[in-house]
């Protein structure tokens, strides 16, 4: 979530109408600092919109694991809610194991929704670094299933 | 069977409302949310929130299989559908029935019976409930013959329609064939059902509806009526109970007709039978039945003291009706305003965005059902309902006074709301007198 330019404009307008000289707003990974200033100051180094600096993102409550910090790791996420299966049928070997090399179109899992099987493809080329949900677990839409090292 | 965990297949204020009763009853809650609602107030209030899909309702809140799978996967015993979305879609009720998940609502067959307007009309007639003069027409000849019998002006309505969609007003009978063609084409495109029927157009009508509760075995009680005549393009804006300016005879007749209709269907759970009260003839006609909890249910709760969500859950658990008709006593008057994120100065266009500050009123006799707090987002994908402010007092003038004060004490910044419009209506003499018809708001907009 981010603030749009219109949001910022609206906040600026509110500050201008208020009796305050400074406003600091921190929310959802965004820190916005506004300071009322004279024109001269504004053109120098104290702009009215001082900065929109991303602060350290808060881990989402519902996320099973924090987003990987390693830029070479890419998440493969669940395209829909359902039951996560690692293999095509009970007892069969898993589609992939940690260490397996995958292509974009490699099937890595199945997500079942009311007996309808949906295949999940890697969508990225690399080596499987981690498989997160256990076999048979309910996964949410957007939940991280695998991490692939590019 | 005792329900221990409920999956709530909805969002917004009604999701928060259902969670509140579940907490009181010690029932666990799982909220199915779209991506846009992951950080919503209801998502924080629920014991667990799971993301079921993208923001667009068609990819999340309207996915029957996904909802049922989510209920099974989270070991929820029951699904509460709220209102809108899947609440009146028979396929959800049916899939719940086959998968052993309790659907908190009527049976799939009952949803189908009231969803088809013509069938509902036939059921009403069979239950000796008056319907607006009119009926189904298969050809233009039939339509013209019926139209001459009913007399103009009349309405052409879509069998599968609702909320005013697929409806055409015909002032003169010679305009009927063209209107029928247009209505049929529109209905076919919008609802996949091109069938239409004719009804007498009631020029001055009031929208009065009756809350009912049924045990599913033919036992039905009513919890009084609600007047929802303050509407804009068929969207209700202000609701109140009791309906002002009705004779005792008419009021009792409305209650009895609603009970007869629901009894005929052996209706299960909470439902609302809507009527059009014809002011000129001092008569009333069946409009439709809503097979779900209504947005405006809190006014009924305010005067009766009954928690309708708790009663829905009790019926769903198979406990039948815990209340007899004689247990229902109405005290005082309650009025509700729907606070929407829409701009009354620009044709009520939606005003989604981020709410900077939300300060809701409190006080004696004031209830606020909302999902909006400071910092909440109003996504553009859903309806613009932010909150319902309900005032309850000993009589109508006192309730009006309380509501006006509550609205004056509400502060919302960041999005445009219709609060100023509510202030205007609440101080307008005709509304204050009570008993306005459904044309009231349109007239107010025209003449000020």
Brief write-up:
The complex is a heterodimer of chains A (150) and B (448). Chain A is mainly beta and 150 residues long. Helices cover 12% and strands 37% of the residues of chain A.
List the helices and strands and how they pair.
The complex is a heterodimer of chains A (150) and B (448).
Chain A: H1 5-17, E1 22-27, E2 30-35, H2 39-43, E3 49-54, E4 73-77, E5 82-85, E6 101-102, E7 107-113, E8 116-121, E9 126-131, E10 138-139, E11 144-149
Chain B: E1 5-8, H1 12-25, E2 28-34, H2 41-45, E3 48-53, H3 64-73, E4 78-80, H4 90-99, E5 102-103, H5 108-115, H6 117-126, E6 134-136, H7 140-150, E7 154-158, E8 168-170, H8 176-191, E9 196-200, E10 205-215, E11 220-232, E12 235-241, H9 248-264, E13 268-278, E14 283-290, H10 297-304, H11 308-316, E15 333-340, E16 342-343, E17 349-350, E18 353-354, E19 357-359, E20 366-370, E21 377-378, E22 385-393, H12 396-408, E23 411-413, H13 419-426, H14 429-433, H15 440-447
Parallel strand pairs in B: 1-2, 1-4, 2-3, 4-5
Antiparallel strand pairs in B: 6-9, 7-8, 7-9, 10-11, 10-13, 11-12, 12-15, 13-14, 15-22, 16-17, 18-21, 19-23, 20-22
Helix pairs in contact in B: 3-4, 4-5, 12-13
